[in-house]
Structures are given as structure tokens and as C-alpha cells.
Design brief:
Layout (H helix, E strand, L loop, with lengths): L1 E6 L5 H12 L2 E4 L6 H10 L20 H19 L1 H10 L2 E4 L2 H10 L4 H8 L8 E6 L2 H7 L11 H21 L1 E3 L5 E3 L4 E6 L4 H12 L2
Parallel strand pairs: 1-3, 1-4, 2-3, 4-7
Antiparallel strand pairs: 5-6
Helix pairs in contact: 1-9, 2-3, 5-6, 5-8
Amino acid sequence: MIVVLTGGDASGKATQSKILAKRLGATLFSFPNYGSTVGKAILGNLQGSWEIHRDSNADHHEGCYKVPEVNALVLQSLMNTNRIERMGDLKAAAARGHVVLDRFEIDALVYGALDGLEPAWLEGINAQLPVKPDLYILLDVPVDEGFKRRPQRRDRYESSVKRMEDVRVAYLKMFNEKQQERVEAVGSHAVRELPGPIWRVVDGIGTIEEVSARVREAVGL
């Protein structure tokens, strides 16, 4: 079984991923992997140490990317490369047993779309990844609670309350839509779930033990 835990900033992903991995005896992977060359470039982008600029006359050229779109395209390309870098290890771990992922491709769909990239393109690119999770868990925490937990923000996404609100709405919308896609009406009172990954939203408010219990229930433990 491959389980992905995701959510907004300070939602408890890292903590709950470690607890779940230990409970399952699973191998844990965290993304982005900032330890690689590509990961260091991603961290630099998120912390504002590099930008992509365009020619000041670019507005006059039809079809030219705007700066945010180019920056988002490069960032998501790096993010995807960062995941591909770990595919060999990830596939080997999945062949041995359970795997827990602290973030994965679902985050690219949320953040990339909010940055102005075409959702269909994001879906298509990330669909090429050879590892397919069985279960996605969203740790849902209100944005104000996230800021209470971590007042010091680490990158350009996390520092904006408005952006974090948009991220939370986008995650909830996506999880609802993905789960609805799996459900097929069979009659007026019955439904049948179609094949594919399971999507679960878990309340991330409470003690570590309380949230962990909800995560275990979502996994079926």
C-alpha cells in the first residue's frame, strides 16, 4: 500500500507521516527532497533567491509567457524532476512493503494551478509517474491555526495568508471531486466505488494522538 499525506503549511504532515510509517512498518519519503541538486534549486526558488525575468518588450510579442507563468512552469518542472529522482528507490520500497509519502504529485496539481498553469497539463505530466498511490489523506487545518503553530514562515507561499486560504480551498475542492469521481450511482439508495485511489479528508485539529487515530481510521487500521 502506498499512502500520501498532504495538506497546507503546519497541518502536521511530517509528524503524522512519521507516525503512520512506523505503525505500518513502511518506508517514508518526503517531497520535495531538498537534499538533491534539484531540491536545492527548488528551495532557492521558494525562498526567493532566483527569479526568471523576461524582456521588457515581451508584452508586444503574442504568446509570450508572463513572468509568474514562466516561473511556475520551471518550478513545477523541477518539482516533477525531484520526484522522478526518487522513483527507483520508491518502486523498490513499494515492492518490499508499504510506503508513506509526505506530499507527492497531488501538491503539484494544487499549487501549479493556483500559479496559473493549466490543470490538464499538470494532470497529464504527473500521470506519467510510474508509482501510483492507493490512498490520499488530506490533513485539513484552518489557516489561522497553521499560523499559530508556525508563526515563522519559511517561503513565499507560506508567508501569504491569502495564498494559504486559496490552497486550503483548492485541496478540499480537489479531494471532494476526486472522491466523487470514484462513486457511481447504482440506484436511489446505493453506490458503488469505482477502481482507483481513495481520497480521505482528516480533521487535523487536536492532539498528535487524536489526529493520529483519525489517520489510522482513514487507512483502515
